[in-house]
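Lab notebook, bench 4. Still working through the backlog of constructs that have no structural model yet. Next entry is a single chain of 119 residues. Request: give me the structure tokens for it.
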Amino acid sequence: MGETSINYLFPPDQIEELPTWRFVLHFKAPFLFRGKKIQQAVTALKQQKWKAIEFPCDLDDLKYDSGNKVFSIPVEVPEARREMPNSLEDYESDVWKIYGNMIECGFGDLYYEAIDFQE
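Model written out:
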């Protein structure tokens, strides 16, 4: 397993100021056996228990973006859950769980996008 990095497309220290916690996690997809590894990753994610995040779409419907060579996973924390104690810690724990599963399945760098971030 090679080194990977997390590239924030928003200032992570401003997460509390975002109007919503809706994000897209864009993972560099493996070149070899891409279809098989995507299926392994989706299966692994569907087997997890999540503390705070929800997926706004069916994981089986996610597609590989051949233009950017990424597999993108939208996630969100509903407003009611966001207002609960430890929501940020639980959210971060869930993101690390996604990251670990994706890396284990052969994916690379993460590009972490906040849907509602505006410069």
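Notes after review: The radius of gyration is 14 Å. The chain has three helices and five strands. Flag for follow-up if needed.
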